[in-house]
């Protein structure tokens, strides 16, 4: 009766909604029903036969407390999963940046853990829901899929800084995935004096987070080719080493 009516209509309703919570709760209801209903039925039969259920209920209550303490971590992850499914800070298919730095795609939000696919290593990461709720996570596709990426470019000392800045900006605007409206123009910053180079940072706004690696790679390639055509040098790291002639030093002493 329970499986044929309640679970049946719950599954039909779950298919009509867009939320993930009912897709998880319905199987959970089915599993709980397989345990609770026979237990209630057995207690009802014992009551009809004249048995005193007080001691049995007390034992069940004590057993529930013991199980609650033993499964504290599991219950914590369970309620954290409910929180994720109701608050919906992210959904399946979203791209997240974890506190540890990995960028992953959400594959499944379960009642105990969330499954994430690492975009760089193609490995499946299973994170307990309690960790997901209590740690900093960036949803990279909310409020939209646009993203600001950073490219670091070094040039040789003696280069024309204004000319380099113009090349870096124009090269970014030539890429098809770079935003070109007034609000999201590429930003070029002369960031520091390095040991053997002048250091620049280029902030580029792209239309989709999924293209972040593609855009930065193609941008660096285009900058390298433009620098080569314009005679702008990208230097190798250099060190100046002074040798002391210990022989002459000892003769003076």
Morphology call: elongated
Describe the strand arrangement of the main beta sheet, using strand numbers.
4-3-2-1-5
As a percent range, the share of helical residues equals: 40-55%
The count of β-strands is: 8
Give the overall average pLDDT: 81
If classified by CATH, what would the architecture of the largest domain be? 2-Layer Sandwich
Please indicate the percent range of residues in DSSP E strands (runs of 2 or more): 15-25%
Count of helix runs:
8
Order of helices and strands: HHHHEEEEHEEHEEHH
The CATH topology of the largest domain comes to Alpha-Beta Plaits
Rg over alpha carbons:
31 Å
Number of domains: 3
Q: What would you call the structural class?
A: alpha+beta
Unreliable parts:
none
Distance between the termini: 106 Å
* Main sheet specs: 5 strands, antiparallel
Briefly characterize the structure.
The chain has helices spanning 2-16, 21-48, 54-70, 72-87, 129-134, 161-173, 212-230, 246-252, and strands spanning 95-97, 103-109, 113-118, 124-128, 138-139, 147-155, 187-193, 198-206.
Describe this structure in words.
With about 250 residues, this protein is α+β, with helices and mostly antiparallel strands. It has helices at about 1-15, 20-50, 55-70, 70-85, 130-135, 160-175, 210-230, 245-250; strands at about 95, 105-110, 115-120, 125-130, 140, 145-155, 185-195, 200-205. The protein folds into three domains: about 1-70, no CATH class; about 90-140, Roll (SH3 type barrels); about 145-230, Alpha-Beta Plaits. It has eight helices and eight strands, in the order ααααββββαββαββαα. Helix 1 (about 1-15) packs antiparallel against helix 2 and helix 6 (about 160-175) crosses helix 7. The termini are far apart. The model has no long low-confidence stretch (mean pLDDT about 80).
